[in-house]
Amino acid sequence: MPNLLSFLRCPETKTPLHEEGGELISENGNRYPITGGIPRLLVPTKTEEEERVRKLIQAFYEQFTFPGYDGIDSPGILMDKAGKSGFGKWVDQAISPFATVLEVGCGTGQMTNYLGLVSTRTVIGTDMSGASLALGQGFRDRFGLSNVHFVQGNIFAMPIAPASVDVLICSGVLHHTPDPKGGFLELLKLVKPEGKILIGLYNTYARIPLGIRQVIFKVSGNAFRFLDAHMRRKDVDQSKKEIWFADQYRNPHESWHSVDEVLGWFAESNVKYLSGVPDIAGKLPGEGVDMRLFEEHPHGSSFLHVMNQLQWMFSIGREGGLFVLVGEKQ
Predict the structure, then answer these.
(1) pLDDT tens for residues 236-286?
(2) How far apart are CA 178 and CA 104, in angstroms?
(3) Is the pTM of this model over 0.85?
(4) 38-39 β-sheet, strand order
């Protein structure tokens, strides 16, 4: 844990921590336990409403650990899964083998562990759900990924030093918070100048088909679950299907966001847009199947963004409508 300690801060006072007797202790005496090898640095959110929503989401993901590790019993299988998804492979290709990477809202830590297969990286995964983190930590321990670390924490009270990470990934998380833009701004503080930030959110347009299914399932008592393509898949076991269904259709809080909204966040906080998944205005010359995430792509117009997002209803809409924008902190 000595290497991890240099990145950790007391979530309440933002001061350094030291380890003593199975605890992390701040300069003013705040104490946080280390259980199962995971520093427990989760503290309440600042406002009453934010804390109410946070507790709902934490309880949900303590019950539904997403995504599950069923069938992923080796680094090779984890690599194969990332390769098939495309996005995981592109992220791995873009990130330097010597980078410090922070995944916020890592869930069960599959991306965190995958990126940590490059042993020269330092990779940290944070999440609210202790049950999810325990699964990630178990994989990490089984395969000796000593450069990978898991930490329990809160997006709005992050236990990470400011300007300490080269790459920050937060995908599928901020739309479950009461203040997605505020969460983005908090996370940006942790990124070094010229560092990269990858933000994945439910898209306002691409999420519409799933929103319609949400209504159908609610009024029918989940009688038509076959309408979701994921529930019809033959290559996924039933337990993972149930976790998917719960995450997509029973989550207690979510919001939807457009490309231009998030580009606005970037512009207001001096973050240069680099790329989008799916791309928002075309690919780079010579860019084939593999995207070059950390190179600056065409920005396009708001009209083009709307046209592309309408098409996403029939592409990424089948898998929940999640899009990712990549930026560089200036």
Answers:
(1) 778 778 888 888 888 889 999 999 999 999 999 999 999 999 999 999 999
(2) 16
(3) yes
(4) 17-20, 23-26, 31-35, 38-39
Q: In whole angstroms, how far apart are CA 241 and each of 66, 67, 71, 210, 295?
A: 11, 10, 13, 15, 35
Domain definitions of the chain by residue range: 42-202, 208-249
Write out the two tokens for 141: 């321990």
Query: Closest by alpha carbon to 280, among 293, 271, 290, 265?
Result: 293
Q: In this predicted model, what pLDDT tens digit does every residue of 52-109 receive, in sequence order?
A: 888 888 888 888 776 767 667 789 988 888 878 889 999 999 999 999 999 999 999 9
CATH number of the domain at 42-202, please?
3.40.50.150
Q: Give the rounded distance of the alpha carbon of 44 from its chain centre.
A: 20
Query: In this structure, is the dihedral angle defined by the CA atoms of residues 25, 3, 83 and 171, taken in order, positive or negative?
Result: positive
d(C-alpha 66, C-alpha 200), whole Å: 16
pLDDT at 8 over 70: yes
Rounded CA-CA distance 263/203 in Å is 13
